[in-house]
Here is the input.
Amino acid sequence: MPIRLHDTRRREKVNFTTLEPGKVSMYVCGVTVYDRCHLGHARCYLAFDLIHRWLEASGYDVHYVQNFTDIDDKIIHRANELGGDWKVLVDQNIETYYEDMDALNILRADDYPRCTEYVDDMIRITQDLIDKNHAYVADDGVYFDVESAPEKYGQLTGQSIDAVRSGAGGRVGDTGSGKRDHKDFALWKAAKPDEPTWDSPWGPGRPGWHIECTAMSMDYFGKEFDIHGGGHDLRFPHHEAEICQGECHTGHSPVVHHWLHNGFVNIDGEKMSKSLGNFWTIRDILTKVDAMVLRFALINAHYRSPIDMNETLLNDAERNYNRLLECYVASLKAREQPSPIALPNPDPASSLPLARSLGLLEKMGEGFAKAMDDDFNSREAVAKVLGMVREISKVLGTEMEAADRNAFAHYAVDLLEETAGRVLGVLPPQDVALAEPEEDPRKAEIADEVEALLLQRGEARANKDWALADQIRDQLNALGVVVTDTATGPEWDLA
Here is the structure.
């Protein structure tokens, strides 16, 4: 079955095709590096990480480019706030970007161009647009003339240029700029005091935001490429502007064959914002939540759907991730021989339990692939993996011949590593999964005290002295100790 994806430009699900057989050219808008990455960035780059992973798992050779916007109003403003060099700020935030993405097990792109490396290309493209009467020079810079190509406006968002034209009346009086029409956008910004600048035919200044991605994507891929991605919020004006300037510059349409956009992240039903006090950086949330739990929570939704991040979602993700990890570890430990015997033919209708389970797991694997082929539906893919976990755990919990158990464990490990590991990216390496957790040093410090209290508690319960038993329980709680009563006696651990 072919991969099908929802193309924002065409507003429908279409078969995925590539310009060159077996190869994918993919450009995703990167971060503006004025601050640490937040939860919205995690959502975006996890979404395209899944797409990247599935395309490669499907046999494609993917050339993935993701830029850094390293000059922008926000960067200049933040550097001025801090009283530091904007270049130092940029380098620091690029370094922390890699730290955050690595923590979330997001595969590196093949290339990470910086905008400031392409200023000459941006100047060249801008001049070409002027020469073709698609742009004009104003006192404060150079602007793209949207009316010069009205048919290219609104292709992603469905905005009608006629409606916008009549509604605004072409008013530009409140823009504070030299542009002719409110719809026009800056290709080049004239120099302002205390801002970094570059020389250009129109005087010193710096590039506009939109021209940056056009210059970088075309440098890598030429006049057309397969996939352009980014957050839902980039459709307008950023990506609309890219279409206008890119197609007018090249004379080629479309430059981008498939436009993909991921959904937003809300916090407890509200849009994430600093003013609401619900703004989470990735670093902030990873002090409270394991990175793989956060990844699990974010991929357990279709990439185009909004996500409401809340305590219930994170708790569910932690519980399901722990189930997956426990199943994976159990499968690893059950592999006792390196060369397993042949397993029976998978058959979900078989009277043989092992053959039936293998048939069910095979069906789930097929369902996983079908889900990912259907517009990268990771939510359904996660559901198939959790179904695998239930079935694998059930089989490993039954009595069977040692050779069958070993062979099944090998099969289970391969299945989980291919789906949950290679594609979903939520499995640790085998050595990490099998490593015993480090003992909390505080546990050793209080061990003698806890053991004495447990002994007293046991005696109190035997004597039916419930008041004393409750008192001892309160003491244990104060120490941060959780007690579990088992058939062989009480077991304890730190909360």
Notes: Residues 167-174 have pLDDT under 50 and may be disordered. Residues 311-334 form the longest helix (24 residues). The chain has three domains: 20-271, 311-434, 441-494. The first strand starts at residue 4 and ends at 7.
